[in-house]
Design goal:
- The chain is α+β, with helices and mostly antiparallel strands and about 250 residues long.
- The protein is built from five helices and eleven strands.
- It has helices spanning about 5-15, 60-90, 105-115, 175-180, 235; strands at about 95, 120, 135-140, 145-150, 150-155, 160-165, 165-170, 185-190, 200-205, 210-220, 225-230.
- An eight-stranded antiparallel beta sheet has the order 2-3-4-5-11-10-9-8.
- The radius of gyration is 46 Å and the shape is elongated.
- The model has no long low-confidence stretch (mean pLDDT about 80).
Length: about 250
């Protein structure tokens, strides 16, 4: 056995070009075999974008920050709105002024304000009463009609839905007394009236008209918590000794 000479080797390559593999054919890994093995490491490397595991969405860190800021802003708006509503509730009074209808009978009030009045024995204790007769109350939508021995003598409320003589429930006492539109001749105060001894009732009355407007003020908050308009002042104060100089 002997090695073939270069001449014989070349002759064989010319006769069988497809059968003899090119020794450089698989050098490298790309294209036609001309890639430089030393430069393969310089090719760009593919990096997948970050993925939100639960949602399966491609979201980068900047997008996440924006989302968190929006959520935080929404919470701040909710907290601010809640604080505003709470402040309004604690300090506001509001309500519709129904002064022109205070002396209307039950049927007229029921028709105008779409109210169904019903007997309400529990409300009797919440209304200042110094008459000698029997008080009964008929209530509907936080309006309470007052009767003495079956005769209508007044109307009462502790709801912010209504105003009497420009006065509203929860209004500061000083403001209410300075701004009320009720025209009175004299006034008097009955201490520890209603609410278990923690309130005072201010009676503003007109002897010529024989009517009276009563504001009950909470002793702790100094705000109006109850108001009553009586169409018969003399009847509602039968058990009181009223001095002429009370004012």
């Amino acid at each position: 056995m002997r090695l073939k000479s270069d001449e014989e080797q070349n002759k064989r390559l010319e006769e069988e070009p497809e059968q003899i593999a090119d020794p450089n054919k698989y050098k490298g890994c790309l294209g036609t075999g001309t890639a430089d093995m030393d430069k393969i490491g310089q090719l760009p490397t593919y990096t997948a974008p970050p993925v939100m595991e639960k949602e399966g969405l491609n979201v980068n860190s900047n997008t996440r920050r924006i989302i968190f800021r929006i959520i935080g802003l929404i919470f701040l708006v909710i907290i601010g709105f809640t604080a505003y509503k709470l402040t309004v509730y604690l300090t506001g009074d509001g309500g519709e002024d129904i002064t022109a209808d205070l002396d209307k009978d039950e049927e007229e009030l029921a028709a105008k304000y779409d109210i169904t009045f019903k007997d309400n024995d529990k409300r009797v204790k919440a209304i200042p009463n110094y008459s000698t007769g029997k008080m009964t109350v008929r209530s509907g939508k936080d309006l309470h009609l007052i009767y003495i021995n079956g005769k209508r003598v007044g109307i009462n409320t502790d709801s912010r839905d209504y105003r009497f003589f420009d006065v509203g429930i929860n209004q500061p006492a000083r403001e209410a007394m300075n701004n009320m539109s009720y025209e009175y001749e004299m006034s008097m105060i009955i201490g520890n009236d209603l609410m278990g001894g923690s309130s005072d009732s201010y009676y503003y009355y007109n002897t010529k008209k024989n009517d009276c407007f009563v504001l009950t003020v909470n002793g702790n908050s100094n705000r109006i918590v109850n108001m009553t308009y009586f169409t018969d002042f003399k009847k509602m104060t039968e058990r009181l000794v009223i001095d002429d100089d009370d004012e």
